[in-house]
Amino acid sequence: LGGRQRGPLSRQVRGTGDSSALSKSSAAARGYVRDRFVALLAGRRRRRAPLVHRGYYVRARAVDHCVRDFLLKTQSCARTQILSLGAGFDSLYFRLKDMGLLSHTVVCEVDFPNVACQKAALIKGIKELSSLVGDAGGEGLGAIAFSGKDYKLLGVDLSELSKLEIALQEAGLDKEVPTLFLAEVVLTYMENSRSDALVQWAADCFSQACFVLYEQMHPEDPFGRVMQRHFNQLNSPLHSLAQYPDHEMQRRRFLQNGWSECSVMDMNEFFTFCVPEDEQRRVQALEPFDEYEEWHLKCSHYFILTAAKGMKPSWTPLLLNVTVPCGDGPVSVAGSITAVACGMHSEAAGLRRYGHHSALIKPNVILTTGGFGEEDGQHRRMRNFHVLIKHEGCWRAGCVKKENSGKRWDERLYHTVSCLSNSLALMVGGRTSPSNAALGMLWLKFPDSSNALDSFTVELVNPQTEPAAFRWRHSATEVMFRGEKYLFIYGGRSATQPVLGDWHFLHTEELSCTVIPVEGPVPEGRHSHSACTWRGGVLIAGGLGAAEQPLGSVFFLREIEHGFQWQTVETHPPLIPRYSHTAHVHEEKLLLVGGVWFHSSSVPGITVIDLMTGLCTDYMISVEHLEWPLMLHNHSSIFLSDEKELLLIGGGGNCFSFGTHLNTEPVSLNLSNILTSH
């Protein structure tokens, strides 16, 4: 929705409202919300991505939840009011009227004068809209652009409070009846002194009021920096973020400006605890979807706030009979590790990607394949393989020559590559799109001895088809059983199953699956987890479960005499649930790197789990020496145990509607201090 900024910036702010209306219309067209009016008000149509649909769904669901709660609580009142600030081309009034929910409620919308005039013209020109409103006359009186019996449309700049007061008086609003204020991404476009004055004015002037605010937060983490950059480029900066960056500061803002109660919830919390499970499943099944990280990050950077004075709040967690864990509290960290860019500059262009895989194929030689990234001046699924070679203490990157390139490898994402010898690796699974994952396996053959960038080649060889490989976001980990080498393929998802919980033992020479008995408590299905070889078995950590919720469990698949056995690894304090991380084992310690979790106040750094004691210790990654946001999801990492060096390659994603972010170049972390301190 449009924002409030006087002067030349108002045009750019109004543009955000136009974009919002188109996104809401697209979400309605795909069945996310029931709204036959939004398309009439948006005018033209534009198809948005599934990620944007989900974002606008949870926004609409949260606001509607608060509005309906207000109407329910005040249904015994003779009269109530809804005052929508910066309403833009929103369809709220028409939906409520169509459902018969406005028998004693007046809806008053406020926006810039020219926006109000445009909307008034639309209403008058579309019979389906005008017949719902009726026409009580009064247009042209002061700021009134349209007037119906229970609908007023006012053209006023919200930053001019004196003019707003006069307009509301002309429209007949009563300061003594219960009033709901709505502000969807509105106050943040105003200077803080003006938006605070508006919040204070609403509390001072209305004796019984609720205020519902939907806005952004957490500006300084990597996603927040990309979000801010997007709005700055639109010449619509988010002013609230500097002074009110999180839950608590927003809550204090309202309590210090005249409101007696205030509750705040981020959108991950709202979707998890306030949307019924059957509705969650309905939404999750509407479209092929594979942008979980960006969905959860978007939701952790937006909140719904309700404040009240003189009446019960429109909504609080207590009223919903749910206990919401505080995802905004600080995560206890034992220290920090400094991230240092590898200094490759132009050489690293081919490594700007996400959803790829990197494998250490021989000492100081890393092969990176697949993913989505930057190639030939455009963003696309990556055609080329790249190699990183460490020479005289410095990493250098280059493009790999592919032999027998007529063999299709399908430019896949979210696959695995397992190095089986100094000259052979096996690529398993992956997808081209969320509806196509039948990509199978591919041998990668490379020279046994060459470590030169300019002569490094990879030959592609298609083996026979193995249905177990038709998956993505899975793991493939080397295990030993009775002296034979297998790849343990576990979890992931497919085009028909959003989460897989099965596993297969793939014999690495025969490339066929073998049945090996497995006993013990079976882990719940997951994808985007981590898997590491340890003591001949596999350590599985985290992942995203069937309800699209991060998991905090750790399991060890241990070899026993007649097969394998699942064992739970207890951690203390409990591991914070996460997914889309990477992992490595070093001397009885499991290292978890990055990922996505629901603690919106911070991003995951490195977690060290002592596999002997279960002690779980978190470290933050210091990025003060990097000139760009470091996003540690959809990345790959390589641990060089002798040097205790961790190399982070790629990472990032499509940041909602804010653009695609790709980490600029590989980053090195020296883990000597944290590994010797344990």
Automatic annotation (TrEMBL):
Its EC number is 2.1.1.290, 2.3.1.231. It comes from the Eukaryota. Pathway: tRNA modification; wybutosine-tRNA(Phe) biosynthesis. One of its GO terms (molecular function) is tRNA methyltransferase activity. It comes from Nothoprocta ornata. Probable S-adenosyl-L-methionine-dependent methyltransferase that acts as a component of the wybutosine biosynthesis pathway. Wybutosine is a hyper modified guanosine with a tricyclic base found at the 3'-position adjacent to the anticodon of eukaryotic phenylalanine tRNA. May methylate the carboxyl group of leucine residues to form alpha-leucine ester residues. Belongs to the methyltransferase superfamily. LCMT family. It is an enzyme of class 2 (transferase). Keywords: Methyltransferase, S-adenosyl-L-methionine, Transferase, tRNA processing. GO terms for biological process: tRNA methylation; wybutosine biosynthetic process. Residues 1-22 are annotated as: Disordered. Interacts with RNF144B/IBRDC2. It holds the Pfam family LCM. It catalyses: 7-[(3S)-(3-amino-3-methoxycarbonyl)propyl]wyosine(37) in tRNA(Phe) + S-adenosyl-L-methionine + CO2 = wybutosine(37) in tRNA(Phe) + S-adenosyl-L-homocysteine + 2 H(+); 7-[(3S)-3-amino-3-carboxypropyl]wyosine(37) in tRNA(Phe) + S-adenosyl-L-methionine = 7-[(3S)-(3-amino-3-methoxycarbonyl)propyl]wyosine(37) in tRNA(Phe) + S-adenosyl-L-homocysteine. This is tRNA wybutosine-synthesizing protein 4. InterPro entries: Gal_Oxase/kelch_b-propeller, Kelch-typ_b-propeller, Ppm1/Ppm2/Tcmp, SAM-dependent_MTases_sf.
